[in-house]
Every structure is written in C-alpha cells, then in structure tokens.
Amino acid sequence: MDITGFLHYLTLPYLVEGLLVTLQLTAFGFLGGMALGAVLAAMQLTRFRTLTVIARCYTTLYRGTPLILQLVFTFTVLPHAGVVLTPIVAGSLALALNEATFFSEIFRSGIRGVDQAQTTAGRALGLGPGALMRRVTAPQAFRQMVPALGNEAVATMKNSALASIIAVPELTLRTQQLASSTFDYFEIYVATAVLYLLLTGAITGVQLLVERRSVRIAGVRSRPLARRKRGRAETTAASTAGLGRGPGTPPELAGPVEVVEMRGGAPAEDGRPEARGAALALTGIVKRYGERTVLDGVDLAAQPGEVVALLGPSGSGKSTLLRIIDQLETRDSGTVTVNGAELGIGATGRRHSESRLAAERVDAGVSMVFQNFALFSHLSVAENVAGPLRWVHGWAADAAAARAHELLGRVGLGEYADAAPASLSGGQQQRVAIARAIAARPRLLLLDEPTSALDPELVAEVLRVITSLARDEGLTMVLATHQLRFARQVADTAVFMAGGRVVETGPAERVIGDPSTPQAVTFMTAMNAAEV
Amino acid sequence: MTRTRTLGIAATGSALILALSACSSPTTPTASPTDEWAELAAGETCSQLREENPDLVGQTKTNALNPHTPGYETISADDPNSYEGFDIDLGNAIGACLGFNVDYVPVGFAELIPTVSSGQADWIVSNLYATEERAAGGVDFVSYSKVFDGILVASGNPKKLTGIDTSLCGTTVALNKGYVEVPLVEAVGPDCEAAGLDAPTVSLFDSSADCVQAILSGRADSYMNDINTVMRYIAEHPDDLDSAETVMLDYEIGIGIPQGEHAFRDAVAAAIAQIQSEGIQQELAARWKLESSEDAEPTILSVG
Q1: Which residues form the ABC transporter domain (chain A) (predicted)?
Q2: What pLDDT shows up at residue A148?
Q3: Least C-beta-crowded within 10 Å: which of A106, A362, B18, B227?
Q4: Facing A169 at nearest CB: one of B3, B26, B119
C-alpha cells in the first residue's frame, strides 16, 4: 500500500465531507430513533393493551426485516404513495425508524431495571406518575442505559453506510465511487476505515464522559469513603460497648432505651375500632391473591397520637395491611379512612388513578417507612429528604435543605448530609428513610418492619429514633414489628394478627405481656424466647 | 445539578454535530451544458426540438447513475464532486440540444430503475443495457450504442476461457449485481452438468472495482463487462489482467425514461439521432478511449 496515497485520501476534503454526512445521518438516526423509541417503550409499558399490541407489531416488523430493504422502501417505494423524500431525509428516516425498535428495548429494560422498592417509596412520598418518572425512574434508568446507548450510537453510525445504496453522499458511497474512479482501492478503503474509527472513537469518548457524569450522585460533594469506614468501625465499636454514644448515634437519643410513657387515646377495651375523630379507621379490609385470602375482614382504628404495634407471625398480613392503608396495594373490599378522608376508592367503587392517589396521600398526611430503606440511590442523603419536599410539597429549595439538615441532625446523621446512600450502614440508611418520611410533617406514619433488614447491632439506633418520634412528635404511628420489647415500650396499642385476621387487640402492655388468646400466647412466648 | 449538566453537554454536542453537518453538506455534483455544445444546440434540429418541447427547456433533469464504470461514468479523480465520462458528456449534449440542465443521483446498480420509476430521478444515462426485463421495471429505453462484452481474466487466461460457454464450467465468474451477464452465465450451468462438469459459480459484487479485486485476489477467474471497461482495467493492471474474449451480446445500451413520458422519450431519441449524425457520439467515444464503440440507431424499447 502506498503511504502517500493513503495520507492523500485520509485528508481528501471529498472523504472528510462524507464523514460529516455520515455524522449527520448518525445524529438524525440516533436522536430520531431515541424519540420514537421512547414513544414505543411508553406504549409497551402502558396499561392500554391496544397501544402495546401496536408497538409490538411495529417492533416485530422493523426488527425482523433488514435495514437495507427499509432504506430502499423509504427511498423508492414511498414515492409511489406520493411521498418523495430526498436521499438524506429518506436515509435519516429509515435509520430512525429502524433504530427506534432497539431504543425502545433499551428504555424498557432500563426502566424495568430500576429498584421497585425505590419507586414504591416515591409513591408513598406522594410523587405522582409523572414526577416519579422524572425524579426517580428516569435518572436511574438513564445511568443503566448509557453503555447500551453508546453501543447503539456506534451501531447507527455503521448502519448509516447502507444508505450509500440510496444515493446519500456519505463516507461509504464516496469511498466506493472514488475507488471506482481512481483504482486506488486499498489506499482509499484503509483511509475510510481510519475515518470511521475516528468517528467511533469520538462517540466512545462522549459515551464515557456521559457515563462518568451520570454515575455521579446529585448533591454528593465528595465520596466519603474514609468517613464511611470510620463510621462503620465506630458503629460496631459502639454496639460492642453496650450501645454507648458515639458519632453516627442520634445525640439526643443516646443512652439506654427508656420505657416511654403511654399517651394518646387508647382504644376501647373491647378492641372495636372507634372511627369518629380517629386518625385511622379500617373497616372490613379483605385482600385476596388469587385463591389465597391474605386479609379477611380486618378492622382497625388509631386515635391521633396513638402508636399501634401490629404483631404476628410472618405471612399474617401485617405488611399487606400497611400497604393497603397507604394505597400501595389494592383491596378487594373494605374502607380506609385517614384523618377523616376515605382513600383509594371513590363513590363509583372504582380505584382512583395513581396521580389522584398521590394527592390523597399528601392531603391525608400519610407517610411510610419500609423494611429495606428504599433510599433514592441517585441522590445524596440530604437530597433524599429535601427532594420530595420540593417536588411534592412545593417547598423552596433553601427551606427544604434546612429541613433536611435539621432532621438529619436529629437522627444523628448531620455530617452525612452530602454522602451517597450506598456509603451508609443499613441502620444509618433507615434513619435517613425515617427522616425522609417525616420531613413533610405527616400525621400518620406507617412503619413496615423497619428493623428486620438490619444486623442486630444496628437495630437499637433505629429503634431509638422511632421511640423519640413517638415521644416528642406526637405522631400517629402504625408499626409492624417483631421486636416485642420495643413494641411494649413504644406502643399504646398492640394488634395481634394471624391468618389475615385480627386475633387480639388491646393495650400493648397487656397484649404482649399477658395475651389472652392461645395463638397470641404461643407467638409471644416464642418471640420472647428468641429475644432473650 | 449534575443531570442538568449532562443533558446540557449532550444537547450541545448534538447541536454541534448538526451545525457542523449542515454547514458542510456537500452539494450534489451538477453539470450544465457548456459552450461545448453551443453549436449542436444552435442547429436547426435542436432548435426545432426545443420549440416542440417547451416543457423541457430550462428544466433540470436528474440522471440516476451508478458511477462505477471508468470511461462511462465515475466521479472525477481531480474533482470528486463532479462526474465525468462518455455517458456524462452524452447526457449533457442531449440536455444542451433539448434545453435542460442535468444533475445526478448516484445509486446502486440494482436501484437504477426503481429510482427512476419512483420519480426520485428523471432518466438513466448509465451504460445500462436495454432489456425487456428491465423495461418491465417501469422504464422505456432509447438505445444509442451497441454492446460488446469483454471477459476480464488473470494474465495469460489460465483457465483458457473462450466466451460465455462451457469453458466457464467449474470456474468462478465475478459479476455486478443486476447485470445482464448473470442469467447468461447461469444458463451455461445445465450444459456443464450434461458434460459431467460443475456449473460456473457466480459471485455477485456491488461495483466493477470489487469484481476486479476479486480476480486480482484469486477469488474469481473472470469478470464480464463492456469491452471498453475491461480494456480500461487491463491498462491499469497490465501485468495482472488480460482479456480472454470479446462477445457480441444481443443488446443495445439505452437511456431509461419513465414509462408514459413519451414526449420526453421521443425528444431524447431525436436528439440522439442528431448527435450521432453530427459524429459527436463517436468523438466522445474517442475522447474517453472507448475503442470498441458503435452507434446504435435510436430505437425505442417499451413494454408499458
């Protein structure tokens, strides 16, 4: 091969201009494919079956036929239907229509790959479907999709070479024409390969740049790796030293856990719910999964400021009941009334839309803490707390930030405000989740086994925070837990459930300390034995 | 916000790409009838043709071409944004006679007829052999030149090929997709098998240059195309390539015009007749070193 000839063709304006046409085709194919792919993905993720079927048919058709046929179709068949497109428009359109099917699959898998616990937590915080997509799902899906999108950009660029057969004056067409005219076959093809590689290199560079930026966590100033290690070591040390006070432990909560004085309106001794003026009233809640009845006519009430502990073996329906209260789960029958408003189902008997449910959660002042923390992993600790205040409750940025810092201070994590959630221990994460849940000053807080995903040495720090909430905030709480001693200390009322029914209800002290039904006796005995 | 910044970068990048591409969008190579054809255009016949066809005057007719045949149509090595060759000059001469300009849309050989029949181009002047099968794709042909095919082989004709006959048995023939030689070579297969030999293998490529490379790299034993094109390749690779045989094919080279455009078609035929009568077509053949070129009387092939 002649090096001079190669260099001549490498710098030949004719070929370099072809590279720019290739770039243009790639850009149109990529951006157009992305836009249409987003529509296709939305159609496939929607509840409307007709839209899903249309999108599926389109995907099957365009993914199942060669791009070269689609190019020829767009260029030479559409004119017979009166649509005459210039080569560059026809090429861009055919590329975009083809790429859309691949983008739609990338979007779908990206969205499905987002941790569902986080989207559930977002719903519980009152985010409607749009805000949830914008604030939680899309940012996390995007960072997962970046490598695949980079791949697709390179694929689009290489596919654009096929547009040479419909007269788009891109690099491949010019290469072939030049080779036909000059006979310098090898020099031209090698120069073209180098030009394509330069373009691929540029695309890869952009991909890496976007990738590096997209993995950054909003609000995180620096990765507190050293601090994280120190924090963990101290937490462990604290736990071995008898839960003493140390960094990472809520300052005002340090020290031995105290028995909390009961307050709030205690339920009637017969355990019947008293709906009037209640913070929460459930009547006749039934929930079935297929043939299996998970909740079988549950009645429950909590007065303002009352702390209700839901106790019972695994599978007794505690979590499902909490999710039904927060409208994260549908119910087959029964009513849920929070602070006087009936949630979830309107007068027509139809379940409300997700956006209406989101508004109802906010209006009713209900919030929830989950077993697995479910912090938004793409946001810093402070943003996890402050974000929903801005997005849902319309707080000003500085007010939301101040509230976040105040609450993080109160749960002993002030110095972790700028940290990434993943750099925190489980106990710390759960304390952040609690701060997030109470940030907008809810009137009813639901806690779904908040300590069961934690290592034993981290349980105490979370229980202290919850105890403090019950003592200082006067929050109405419904708490599913297996921690009997804790429940006895913090709860006014204990509700023992088994097999989807409420078996025994009464003052926590009595139900836990001196249960009257055989099932409750067996359960309390077993749990007490395990706790000792 | 990091995300906003990321999106900003992406948006700026895309805008930059589009801006760059837009400002450097190459123009389609164009050529207009030059003073070279002024005398032809001023002649009585051409003047009359323009009077009879006022719709053509001042128009730009887009020529669909497959610019991979040196001597007939390729881009210019000196100015790759323009086309050159016998067909390019002939098209310009016709345009000058009838009063229209010519521009070009380069497509794959197999896409020539679909491009014109779909209206993406107005005519084909691209060394295209006029056959009924091709006409059935939606064009009428106005013939202008006779067909002499050459057989390009490696130096010394090692396989002793003698034409499109049983000497091809067991060999590999490189051909362009859509060329008329494809069915002719395939038709030899049964004769080979009757003689207990293997049928020839046809290897199809997109351009003549690819076919020539197939011979140079030993992948194919022969390549068939217009004899002038074959001779051009031999001149480029005198040590490696040879011509085995010249075959007179029962075709003529024609200009493709969309079916139904009779006025345009007949005007082109009349212009060709005038160009031939003034000896211009032979001058062009000499200019482009098409030694075996013979005018064909402009006749119409139409199946529509």
Answers
A1: 280-524
A2: 93
A3: B18
A4: B26
Is the pLDDT at A250 greater than 60? The verdict is no
Residue A83 per-residue DSSP state: -
Q: Considering CB atoms only, which of A88, A166, A213 is closest to B2? A: A213
CB contact under 8 A, B118 and A165: no
- Residue B106: closest CA among chain A residues belongs to which residue? A167
Inter-chain residue contact B21 with A27, CB threshold 8 Å: yes
Mean pLDDT taken over chain A: 86
* Cβ atoms of A247 and A254 closer than 8 Å: no
B17 contacts on A by Cβ (under 8 Å): 23-24, 26-27
* Gap between the Cα atoms of A200 and A179, Å rounded: 23
The ipTM of this complex is: 0.77
Smallest Cα distance from B118 to chain A, Å: 5
Read off the pLDDT band of A16 (50, 70, 90).
very high
Residue A314 sits at the chain B interface (C-beta within 8 Å): no
Domain A253-375+442-531: state its class: alpha beta
A153 lies within 8 A of chain B by CB: no
Residue by residue, DSSP assigns A325-379 as HTTSS--SEEEEEETTEE-SB-TTSPBPPHHHHHHHHHHHTEEEE-TT----TTB
Q: Over chain B, what is the mean pLDDT? A: 87
CATH fold of A3-214, please? MetI-like fold (1.10.3720)
Q: Read off the pLDDT band of B34 (50, 70, 90).
A: low
Q: Which amino acid is at B246?
A: T
Domains recognised in chain B with CATH numbers: 30-146+252-301 (3.40.190.10), 149-249 (3.40.190.10)
